[in-house]
Design goal:
This protein is α+β, with helices and mostly antiparallel strands and 193 residues long. The chain has helices at 2-6, 22-33, 54-66, 78-85, 101-113, 152-168, 170-173, 182-192; strands at residues 40-45, 125-127, 137-145, 176-178. The radius of gyration is 20 Å and the shape is elongated.
């Protein structure tokens, strides 16, 4: 009975990497010398009017980065970077400063296809019709990484926490968050529940 009370639930991906492989060595180096196992987190937004919701996208990115379980410097948000690269919200040419949707979508398309500018985010934005940006955006993704968790309880808490962030933007951006380990963390949550 004493042992059962002290039993802790945990799950680490590194347990399933075969010993003696480069993958195992890389995982151990990451754990020993860096922040450990930073699991990716993907925030998705779906088919909404991004022109009218552009300030919401920036707020979502800010809230995602500010989450206690996210490594804030890992945030990769196409909208925030575009806004930063185009002089910020105060400028008429910034990501949020356009007077009409067609000009905004055309400028975003140019930004995302210009090497050395926003081209690294091109795969983060899925156009409704890639040949006609005025038709809008079908979906986007925002990337970040979870801080390395101490145990399964922290994995579960981090999953629930970022889902709370997504839920705050469900109505405006149809946001949802996913990470491949959620499949396992959900199981742990059921077992712990």
């Amino acid at each position: 009975a004493v042992g059962i009370v002290r039993l802790q639930l945990d799950f680490q991906f590194t347990w399933f990497i075969p010993s003696g492989t480069d993958a195992k060595e890389a995982a151990l180096i990451s754990l020993d010398y860096f922040t450990g196992e930073n699991v990716p987190a993907f925030m998705y937004t779906k088919d909404v009017d991004y022109y009218t919701k552009r300030a919401d996208v920036i707020s979502l990115c800010d809230d995602f980065a500010a989450n206690e379980y996210i490594v804030s410097s890992s945030l990769s948000c196409w909208m925030k970077q575009w806004d930063s690269d185009t002089s910020g919200a105060a400028s008429a040419g910034s990501a949020v400063g356009y007077a009409n949707a067609n000009a905004w979508y055309a400028s975003l398309k140019t930004y995302l296809t210009t090497p050395g500018s926003g081209a690294r985010f091109e795969g983060f934005v899925k156009w409704t019709d890639s040949s006609d940006p005025s038709k809008g955006i079908a979906a986007t993704t925002i990337f970040a990484q979870f801080d390395a968790a101490k145990d399964a309880n922290e994995n579960i808490a981090s999953m629930d926490s970022v889902r709370t962030v997504a839920a705050e933007y469900k109505e405006s951006l149809d946001a949802l968050v996913f990470s491949p380990p959620f499949v396992f963390w959900e199981g742990l949550k059921v077992v712990y529940g």
